Structure formats: structure tokens, C-alpha cells
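re: ur question from earlier - yeah i can do the single chain one, its not a big deal. heres the input i used so u can compare w yours
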Amino acid sequence: MFGHPNSKPVTTDHSPYIGSAAYGIGVQSYRLYFRTDGLGGFAWFAGGTHNDGTGNSGGGATLMSLTSTGLTVNGIFASSSDRNVKAGFEPVDSKSILKKVAALPIARWHYTNDVATPHIGPMAQDFSAAFNVGTDDKHIATVDADGVALGAIQGLNQKLNEELHRRDAESAELRQNLAALQSRLVRMETLIRKLSGD
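and the output i got, formated as C-alpha cells:
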């Protein structure tokens, strides 16, 4: 039932394990794990019937698949964001975030184990150095990438509003100066007419 048709079942004296050397399900201290040879990966199906074809849901729906190229979720991927599971709230400077995003090196790249699929984005080391978030400098959590993007949008909005207010003030000053010049011009024209006897 478990493993490649040519593989032989494996048992251990240490922890429960069902399967073969390359494919199976095991239990370690505080962890349930699944093993594949790194090519087939894992899949979660809903409905359908058994099919031996790799990735074939047997008429059901593929909910998720995990291969050496990554995790694919067919539906939403939701990180917990409930206020009740968060603590240590601190305000952020959105304009500072925007400045850091603008300076963040963004490159086109591919993973070393998937050269055919291009991606665009920052390196985790640069992201970590700029924003000091996440568990390490090798990964970028989607919740942090989203937060930085939203913070930068707010910073851009603040910057735009400040520029609009500055231009509005400048425009109001120009209108005031123009009105004063028009008033002076009217007085000068009146004086010229008086002096010329018109």
C-alpha cells in the first residue's frame, strides 16, 4: 500500500514507521512525518477514488500539493491574523517603510532546484536587514511581506497627501499674490487715467 511498487517494507526498533525506505509515514519525538524520494511529493485530494497516476486525484479535487518546487494551495492561504492571538503592538513609521522598500534590491531570479520557473522579489537577507522581522534571514513570511507592502502603501499615501497639501498651500499663496497684483494694477490704471486727464 505504501511506497514504490519495487520498494520493500521497512520496520524500525525505535519509532513507528509504515512504508519503505523511500516512502512512508513515521513518528518521531513530538512529530509525525511523511517521506518521499523528493520527486513525487505529497498531495491532498478531496473525493474521487484511488488512482496510481502521480498527481491524479481519481476524479476528486486537488486541495494541495507539495513537491520539491514548492507548496501549491488550490484555494486561499490564510495566516492567522486575529487581534486576540497577537501582542506587543508597536506603531510603525509608514514613510520609513516606504523609504526602505524603495531602497530594497528587487531582482528576477529562479530557485536552484527549479530553473524553469522565474520569480521576482527581494532576498530574505536584504528583507531581514531592512525590516528586522521573521524567524531568520533565510525566509520571508507572507504575513511580513504583506505587512511591509501595506505599510509602504500607507507611506506613499501620506507622502502624496503631504505633497498635495503643499501644492494647495502654494497655489493659495499664488492666488493671493495674483489678487494683490491685480488690485495694484487697478490702482495704477486709475492713477494713470487721473494724471493723463481722462
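The first strand starts at residue 17 and ends at 19. not sure if urs matches, ping me
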